[in-house]
Design brief:
Layout lengths: L1 H14 L2 H10 L5 E4 L5 H10 L4 E4 L3 H8 L10 H7 L3 H5 L8 E4 L10 E4 L14 H13 L5 E3 L1
Bound molecules: nicotinamide-adenine-dinucleotide.
Length: 157
Amino acid sequence: MAARGSAARRRDDASRTPGRILEEAIATRRARVGVVGLGYVGLPLACTFAEGRFPVVGFDADAEKVRVLRAGGTYIRHVPATRIAALRGALERVIGAEPGHGRFAATSDLVHLGACDAVLVCVPTPLTAAREPDLSCVEASMRAVARTLRPGQLVVL
Ligand SMILES: NC(=O)c1ccc[n+]([C@@H]2O[C@H](COP(=O)([O-])OP(=O)(O)OC[C@H]3O[C@@H](n4cnc5c(N)ncnc54)[C@H](O)[C@@H]3O)[C@@H](O)[C@H]2O)c1
């Protein structure tokens, strides 16, 4: 009996792969979502996840944008300040959030990427004078993601 119990435990442990743990975290709204680049794509995306009860940390290199969001304001016309103000929470509380309490905090400090289970990168890719995409922002943000990357972390570019 005891032997069967430990075999079952081993099977359970083996099925708890980083991918399965992430799936469970998403299903229970425990997964912390990081959005890098809070522009026309990233800001509404971050709000939508927070409204869906995920804790969301938004990252932007522009300190002024972070300041405006922290004050409950906006800089994008179709994302009203009321939407930001309703979602905003303290960074420490969002990172340590209980499941189902979707809240949004903004920061420029990419060290907090390590606390996120899913990282969605929404930085600009403008065209150069030669009409080639300028990937320097993508490369910079992916270097930052790589510094805190861990098994089971989902990164979406
Ligand atoms: N806007 C659109 O309608 C649209 C549609 C389809 C695809 N896209 C694509 O989505 C991506 C994002 O576009 P957007 O319109 O949201 O851009 P945006 O310029 O509005 O926003 C990008 C944000 O990223 C920030 N940023 C730049 N480098 C950063 C870094 N290293 N770390 C953190 N933040 C950084 C900027 O300060 C800015 O706030 C681009 O690749 C674009 O081609 C945009």
